[in-house]
Amino acid sequence: MSWQAELQAMGKMAANVPLAPRTTLGVGGEAAWLFRPSDKANLIAAMSMIPQDISLFPLGRGSNVLIADSGIDGLVLDLGGINTLMVEGETIKVGAGVRMSKLAQAAANHGLTGLEFMATVPGDLGGGVAMNAGAFRQQVSDVLLSVDVLHRDGRLTCISRDALDMRYRYTKLPQGALIVSATFKLETSDAEQIKTTMREMRSKRSDSQPLALPNCGSVFKNPEGDFAARLIESVGLKGEQRGKARISDVHANFIVNAGGASSEDVLHLIRLAKAEVKKQTNIDLEPEVKLVGCSL
C-alpha cells in the first residue's frame, strides 16, 4: 500500500489541490498533496508514514501567507481536525486547528482576559503561535505557557514559552516541527467587559483595514518606532496596482486582490514597496507575510 493510501485511511487525502481558495488572499497554485488528519492520534501515526523526502507545509485558514503561482511541491497539512479546546480554571489548552476568533470567544465566555486581540486576527491557533501573532498591544507570547510540537520522526514534545525565544512576530521552533497544541495562562476578569473590548477591537479593525476585499493581512512588520503603512504611503505607493493586485488605498500595509490577481502580481508590489521605502528612507522593511515558493 502506498503512503498516500495509508494516509487516506487516517483522514482526507487528495492530490493536485488548488490552494488559492484556501488562502485569504485568494492566490497561489496547487498542492501536490493535501492531507487533513481526522484527529491528533492520526496525525502522529501519519508522520512516520510520510517519506522523509516529501516536504511538509502546515496551512490553516491561509492568512498571512503568499503561495507562489507554481504551488507547493509537497504535502500540505490541514490541521483543522486538531480542534480540541479545554478550559481548567485560568488555563486553556487548545488544538492547532482552532480558529483564533473561536478561542478568544471561549476565553471571554469563561471570564478570562488576555486573548481579546485574537477576535480580530484571522487564522488558526497553530499559525498564530508560530508567528507570535498580535494586535492592540497584545500578543501570543504575553500569555503562552507552552506548546506541544510534533517532530518529523513522530516524537511529541512540550516546549516552554521561555525556550521559544518569542519576539515581535517571531517564534523559534525546532526545524520541521509542527505545532499540535498550545497552553495559555490567563487572568480572571468581567466577562461582559471582555466581550465589549473585543467588539471595540473588531470595530476599529473594520474601520481601518480593507476587509471587504481578499487580503493576507499586514504585508510588512512595523519597523521599530514607525509604521510600515506610513512609510509605504510616504513614498507615494498607496493605491499602486499591478494586474489585479493593489496596495490598498485604505491601509497601505495591505495588498488586496481586486479579482483575479496572481501571486506574481502581489510579489511585484511587495518588491516595489520594499525597494522604494529603502531608496527614499533607508529603512529596510521586513516581510510579515510568509512567502512560500517565492522570494524577494
Quick rundown:
It contains seven helices and 18 strands.
Write a structural description.
The protein is α+β, with helices and mostly antiparallel strands and 296 residues long. It has helices spanning 3-8, 40-47, 100-109, 125-130, 191-208, 228-234, 263-281, and strands spanning 11-18, 30-37, 56-58, 65-67, 72-77, 85-88, 91-95, 112-113, 134-135, 138-139, 144-150, 156-160, 178-185, 187-188, 241-242, 245-247, 255-257, 290-292. A hairpin with a 5-residue loop joins β11 and β12. The strands form 6 sheets. A 5-stranded antiparallel β-sheet has the order 6-7-13-11-12. Strands 1-2-5-3 form a 4-stranded mixed β-sheet. The chain has a 3-stranded antiparallel β-sheet with strand order 15-16-17. α3 (100-109) packs antiparallel against α5 (191-208). 42% of the residues are buried. The longest helix is centred in the C-terminal third of the chain and has 19 residues, at 263-281. It has 3 domains: 3-77, Uridine Diphospho-n-acetylenolpyruvylglucosamine Reductase, domain 2; 85-208, Uridine Diphospho-n-acetylenolpyruvylglucosamine Reductase, domain 3, CATH 3.30.465; 211-284, UDP-N-acetylenolpyruvoylglucosamine reductase, C-terminal domain (Uridine Diphospho-n-acetylenolpyruvylglucosamine Reductase, domain 1). The chain contains 7 helices and 18 strands.
